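Sequence in, structure out. Go.
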Amino acid sequence: MDHFEDRIVLAKKNPIHWIDDICHDKVTWSRKWDGAPSIFVGRDKQGIYVAKKGIFNKNPKLYYTDDDIRNDLGDSPLADKLFVVLLTLKDCDLEVDDLVQGDLLFTRGDITNTSTGRSQFQANTIVYQADGMLNSEWVGIVWHTRYIDAQAHYGHDIKSMVGENCHGLYHFNADNEIDPLDEDTKTLLSYMKKEYNRVKTDFSLNQMTVDLYIRYINSRIKEGTFSHDGNITGFANFVVDHMTRAVDSVKREETKEKRTELYSPVYDDLHKMVVVDKMHSILYKMKMVILKSLNKSSSIDTYLKTKTGLRPTSHEGYVAINAHGIDAVKIVDRQEFSFANFSPEVIKGWIKD
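Output:
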């Protein structure tokens, strides 16, 4: 699943069509949750099983029993969590061949209570606070994906598939509590689309250029130097540095020359990248407008944990899902959330006090 603005180079189809679909309410929305790990739950003729992301590997590991989990993962915290999930979901309503995916938000022992009577939990980077006392629950999961013949389908009512017969399960769908975009936001997006169309240019890029541009954008975000107004000024130097490291890593002159030649198509593409970066920038700004509207409604508050206490933050982001439920793009404030993922100032869920 790509970031919306990165589709300008990653996809053959211009991503602006997503704005048309968004403004005409032709997409469904799913909120991204910062849970960990990602959990797969399914049923086959042997019964209910849980699995990790490697479920689609050539030799997938499916865990039907505690022994299956321990034999693979040993006596580890991850093994403990997977066992609690398996035990809690053993009586769920999934049918044979059903397979669903969600993010694990907490297991018993992860919940703390605030002075205002809210439940607080943190699986990864974001700290969540929810109404009610969740200490009595064994597992908290947010569902977001159903698989049919190994094809991901987004936006299904997975909570109903799993059912309410699982004692100790606090679960919900990732599309809960998301209001449609307001009309002012849609009007603004329409104006921004006109600006985008003024600069839009058809282009083709070498695959290496695409790969390096995406790496470059990610590096700017990690460093905290990404700008809404464009980032092209440093791209040529990034390419030179990348090529220099690649060439310096080998000793034979013949190999050095071959590595240098690999970058020739990238240099040929550099003149195109000014307008590409401009289009990328406008798409990013449009995404931020969308985020501002979507973030208005949520009963669950979000924070980042620092040495000086909790700092309010937005949700991780959202996913826009097309009408068929099989294509989706991420709508994420990468300067806020993605940067926080790499910041040493933000205390993550796996870092012990």
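Check: Residues 6-25+180-294 form one domain. The first strand starts at residue 2 and ends at 3.
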